[in-house]
Amino acid sequence: MLLTPDEVAALLRTTRKAVYAMAERGALPGVVRLGRRVLFHRDNLLSWLDERRAPSPGRTRR
User: Fold this and answer.
1) Residue of 35, 9, 43 whose CA lies nearest to 23
2) 61 in a domain, yes or no?
3) Measured between alpha carbons, how far is residue 50 from residues 17, 33, 35, 43 in Å?
4) How far apart are the C-alpha atoms of 34 and 6, rounded to whole Å?
5) Is residue 24 within 8 Å of residue 16, measured between CB atoms?
6) Confidence at residue 15, expressed as pLDDT on a 0 to 100 scale
């Protein structure tokens, strides 16, 4: 499933402009360019979010 920049912005709680900037920098995974349209692979984006939310291995909370 592909997501629009507006859908990604809602998911990341940011603006559409920020999503475009992150895509341009290569900071977001699963970017698909179809002509002038920019879309995102939902599964890649959700996996990336899960990795970012997970605590670092080997670190314990004290």
Assistant:
1) 9
2) no
3) 23, 24, 29, 11
4) 16
5) no
6) 98
